[in-house]
Structure formats: C-alpha cells, structure tokens
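Sequence and structure are no longer studied apart. As an example, we show below a sequence and the tokens encoding its fold:
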Amino acid sequence: MSSALDRLKKLTSKISSYEMARKENLIVLKELYEEIGVNEKVEPFLSIFNFKAINLSGASLLSENLGAIKEGKYLQILAISYDKEAVVKSKNISLGYYGRVENVDTQFKDKVVEFIIRYRFEKSFMTLEHYHTMLEPYNKKTDG
C-alpha cells in the first residue's frame, strides 16, 4: 500500500511541478512577447495561440545546437495561420523581422529563440488539453 501511495505522491508532485512551470513560462513568454516586438503585430497576448505554429528562420531550434545562427539567413519569426474556409488553407505571417542574423545582437537573438521555445511549451499543453477533451466521449463509453 505504501508503494502505491508513494507513486501517487510522485505523480501529484510531477503534475504540480508542470503546472508551476507552465504558469512561470506564461509570465516570461509575455515579457518576451513585448521585448522582441511581437506585440506590435499581434494583440492581445493570448491571441498568439490562435496560430497553428510559430517558427523561426535564421537560428536553430534543435536541442543539439539551440540558437546557432545560420549564416546568410535573416532572423525572422513566422507564424502559420490556418483558415479552413480559404482557398489557400495555410499562410505564413511575419511576426518579427530583425535583419541578417549575423548582424543581430546575440542576446536579442537568444530572446527570440527563447520566445519560440516558450511558445511551443505552452502550445503543447494546449494541444494536450484539446485532445484530452476530444477523448471524453470515448472515455464514457468504456466506463460502463
């Protein structure tokens, strides 16, 4: 019985840790949203999550070389919008254009990279919640 209780405590602690990380992430994400100027293109803040995705050109988002610049490229934040009613369903929208990446201040570039990672962190939680809600009708079928 003690091991089941220990597992429950660990799981509760992990869930609580994720929720705390998520709340802190949103605070920092909003600060970065304003610092790097995304607020000039998209308001209010939470509407950034209406995009299907936000990508970055000019710097790597891969964990093994996070933030490494891509010489000759331009540092730009690109959002992907989706309109199922439109002829062209998805469209790229520039949320921030900062010039040639090798000319951008390294600290600023790092803030842009951090913004993207923090956005994706929160977006992943939203996606998880979305699919959890979609499964609810199926969970009721298996309960009875």
Q: What stands out?
A: The CA atoms of residues 6 and 32 lie 38 Å apart. The helical segments are 2-35, 106-143. The mean pLDDT is 90. Residues 106-143 form the longest helix (38 residues).
